[in-house]
Design brief:
Pfam families: Abhydrolase_1. This is Alpha/beta fold hydrolase. This protein has 286 residues and is an alpha/beta fold. It has one domain (2-284): Rossmann fold. The chain has helices at 49-57, 82-96, 108-120, 150-175, 187-199, 202-214, 218-223, 245-248, 267-270, 272-284; strands at 2-3, 12-17, 23-29, 34-38, 61-65, 101-106, 125-131, 228-233, 255-260. The N and C termini lie far apart (36 Å).
């Protein structure tokens, strides 16, 4: 693996080049205990702006990357599977020599955290957080009868592959719960979601729908031996609480659940103050 660094003290951004030649973009700011943020489909490290700024001021070292094919990372046609996503994270962690880290994942990023911690985290991970995350399984199957129906998954993949510019505008409405009575709609937040999505590769995003919907995390959750907090909005219209958050924490050895009545999938943005405070409390807890 070739490694390219920004500022080794944790105050910059650069790329790590992994074994297949893909360049993974990352931000690395501050010092102190490292917090590594994993974004959801089809976004980028920028989706963690509210958390990166908050925790930087609290004295933490904050790191976030763009998944392969997303954001500023290489728009490769290779490696669109959860094992490779996790291996890419491991490469960034190794390059930055992160230890005692807390890994925090939103949506698909929560699946990435789960696979990374289970496969690569031993000796480097202190805690993990899954926010509005896809584990243990997103789509409806015999094993997961309350999951998202395959026709819904197909519509997401079709919208991404065939008319993503409009589809990405439309999906921001349920993503942030802006279709609920009394919702405080922010056009800036919607446009920022669209901006991040359109930065990435249509191929990577289309394949990522398959990955996030089909990957099972039952075995990963069962072997994780560090404390994990599951945080999930009960009005999540993307990753339904009843089939993801309400299930995943029970499969963990040291899992806890913090659920939020009425909050949407994108609650780290819409309710950043609340989510940041709860994250801080979990990170600081002994």
């Amino acid at each position: 693996m070739n490694q390219q660094f920004g500022d080794a003290t944790g105050t910059g951004s650069s790329f790590v080049t992994v074994s297949d030649g893909t360049q993974i973009f990352y931000k690395d700011w501050g010092s102190g205990q490292p917090l590594f943020f994993h974004h959801g489909w089809p976004l980028s490290a920028d989706d963690w702006d509210a958390q990166m700024m908050f925790f930087l001021k609290e004295g933490y070292r904050v790191i976030a990357h763009d998944r392969r094919g997303h954001g500023r990372s290489t728009q490769t046609d290779k490696g669109h599977d959860m094992d490779t996503y996790a291996a890419d994270v491991a490469a960034v962690v190794e390059a930055l020599d992160l230890k005692n880290a807390v890994h925090i994942g939103h949506s698909t990023g929560g699946g990435e955290v789960t696979r990374y911690v289970a496969r690569h985290g031993k000796g480097r991970v202190k805690k993990a957080v899954l926010i509005s995350a896809v584990p243990p399984l997103f789509r409806k199957t015999e094993k997961n009868p309350n999951g998202v129906p395959q026709e819904v998954v197909d519509s997401i993949r079709d919208g991404t592959a065939k008319h993503r510019a409009q589809f990405y505008k439309d999906i921001t409405i349920p993503f942030y719960g802006y279709n609920r009575p009394g919702a405080d709609v922010s056009e800036g937040v919607r446009e920022n979601w669209w901006r991040q999505g359109m930065m990435g590769s249509i191929l990577a995003h289309t394949e990522c729908v398959r990955v996030l919907s089909e990957t099972e995390f039952y075995d990963d959750l069962a072997v994780i031996d560090v404390p994990v907090q599951v945080m999930h909005g009960e009005d999540d219209q993307i990753c339904p609480f009843s089939t993801t958050g309400a299930v995943s924490w029970k499969l963990l050895k040291h899992g806890t659940l913090k659920s939020y009545p009425g909050l949407p999938h994108g609650m780290p943005t819409t309710h950043a103050d609340l989510i940041n405070a709860d994250l801080l409390a979990f990170i600081r807890a002994s």
